[in-house]
Amino acid sequence: MRNEDFFENLRQTLTETAEVVGKKAEDLVEIQKLHSRIRTAQRNVETDYKKIGEIIYQRYIEGELPGQELELICEMIMEQQKEIAGCKEELASKRGQVVCAACGNGNPKDAAFCMHCGAVMPKTDEEGVKTEESAETVEANLAETVQEAEEVAETVEETAEPEKENETEIAAELEEETPVAEE
Does residue 112 sit in helix, strand or coil? Predict the structure, then answer.
């Protein structure tokens, strides 16, 4: 009986471990697919940028202004950039992160500022969903920050005043002690 329990526990542990490893492998494959989609979209954007440059240059040589061809390519670029942003969002979500709206890099969900560009990160709830702050909350936070800055400025001014007085006293003492050179 004892051996049967041991083997049953071993089988159950191995099954659970295989499931966890399988899930991690699936996640890794999904992450690699997202990276591949991002690289492909970025290459497409670069190709479209080159096409725009070639068209503009050719038109310049011919004395014409850019037209609908450029508009179409610009629209294609915008679509590719949306694809890139969507993939980055999905990738960040899989990693338990949020994407900075300013630079597009992933950051921890609880980050107040982007670790790459310093932009203010939107607040998120426990599931990582962006939450909208009310205007009153933003205003209150701003007022609090301004008040803190004013307090710091007052503290700096207060500590600077005695130093100025000391500097004036020291300068006066030095003038008294320094002999005046006679000509």
Answer: coil
